[in-house]
Amino acid sequence: MQSRTYLRIEGDLVSLVSEVVDREVALPDLLAELTSTQLQVTPRLPTGCRFWIRSGSTDRQVFVIEQAPMRRTIEYQASRRGMSEPVNHRLALPYVVFVVSTIGEQIESLSTYFRSSSLRSLDDPLCHSCLPNTSDDGVVCLGSVRVAGASVGERVDALIGAFWASRFNQDLRRHPLPFSGGFRSWAARSRRDPLAALSLSYDAYWRNLRQVVAQMAGIVAADLPAGTVPAEASETEVRTPEPVALEGGEADALAS
């Protein structure tokens, strides 16, 4: 650091100027730095990823994936002992949020939640999922699932695909449905209205998205950024964003 004092003459006005120079570099070096190209490649993110958090201190990554409302066919076997035949149920689902944590290149855990509207912020609330093989904390029973992929993003996609394609059972007691009649009643409502799941009242989960992400990333919730998704201008003009068909599911914007 250097200091300089000099006289500055402007017309008939003379000023005594003191300035501090923090750093000096040669002009050719500055021009070379300004014209250099720096490229950073973002890793391949999972389909539908809304938030991505990476913790350098714990070598963990957390991906928040949102799937739009749609009807899906799930296979469910009611008996834990395998004495009953599995039954297919075609169910209308609300927004389904998956939160996946990884350590290095390996998937650590998968949790899932329901919402009646699209995510806009890390501070958004979550609702209990009513899907089988999901605990009241949202943690999914992965069993012996093994997935492959060239990147973490591809493996997360494969894991969620395996979740929907699995044979659901009662290994974990799912959170109760917001109506009586079980899956048969759910399927009947879904036939009448493919968006019926958006109007149901699900039990609120005791943590919001920020708290879930922080816990899975192994960091303090307050250390996470604001994490707000810009609102789309057209969203106020429609009842729900246009669903996107994904593997294992079918988008239904209108009753068939």
Binned strand content: 25-35%
* Secondary-structure element order, N to C: EEHEEEEEEEHEHEHE
> Poorly predicted ranges (pLDDT <50, ≥5 residues)?
233-247, 250-256
Overall pLDDT score: 81
Largest beta sheet: strand ordering? 3-4-7-8-9-11
Report on the structure:
There is one protein chain. The strands form three sheets. The chain has a six-stranded antiparallel β-sheet with strand order 3-4-7-8-9-11. Strands 5, 6, 10 and 12 form a four-stranded mixed β-sheet that branches. It contains four helices and twelve strands. 17% of the residues lie in helices and 31% in strands.
Task: Give a nutshell description of this structure.
17% of the residues lie in helices and 31% in strands. It has 4 helices and 12 strands.
